[in-house]
Amino acid sequence: MLELRKVCKSYGENQVIKNFSHVFAENKTTVITGPSGCGKTTLLRLIAGLEKPDSGEIITNNKTFSMMFQENRLLPWLTAKQNIELVAEMGDILDKLALTDVADKYPTELSGGMNQRVALGRALAYKSDILILDEPFKALDEILLEKMINLILDEHGKRTIIIITHDNNIINRIADDKIHI
Question: Where are the alpha helices (DSSP H) in the chain?
């Protein structure tokens, strides 16, 4: 179970999250939407334990997390394959991500969309209880977008998934629950 109770977070005078409460359904997909700067990424960082709330409570029951950030956060001195292997055994993730041909290339040798897929692969490869994805679909063409949606749908029912996206077509396909903040 993942539950937030009256969580608040401010940066100086700017209160980004105010009395946010929500119970995230186990093994379901929750999509978070809202305008730029409203606190969506901050909320994900709080859930993952990367930031502490000013007040309120986050109950995780010792669940494990994997996270894909808005920025790919790949290690530039590691290849695409090594960036994924850093967190888990490879399996067939490179094939599923359509990255087999570039497995031995470094992030600086890859396009933005390829780096995005490597970052998604790293988050997917780590078999966490909760998968957190911050804007995972940017920089993808329609064919790759479809593949990535299917990869996420494959995780449905296996773990709790929390995604930030603004695309209503994607939301309608993957969301069990939707939060607008």
Answer: 40-47, 80-85, 93-96, 112-125, 142-155, 168-174
First to last CA, the chain: 21
Sign of the CA dihedral 95, 135, 76, 127?
A: negative
Burial class (CB in 10 A: 0-12, 13-18, 19+), 20: buried
Instruction: Summarize pLDDT for 85-134 with one digit per residue, the tens.
Output: 998 887 788 999 999 999 999 999 999 889 999 999 999 999 899 999 99
Question: CA 160, CA 176: separation in Å to the nearest integer?
Answer: 11
Sign of CA dihedral 31, 33, 37, 38: negative
Q: What are phi and psi of 42, to 5 degrees?
A: -60, -40
Residue 154 to residue 160: CA distance in whole angstroms:
12
Backbone angles phi, psi at 149, to 5 degrees: -60, -45
Summarised one tens digit per residue, pLDDT across range 27-58 is 999 999 998 888 999 999 999 999 999 999 99
pTM over 0.70: yes
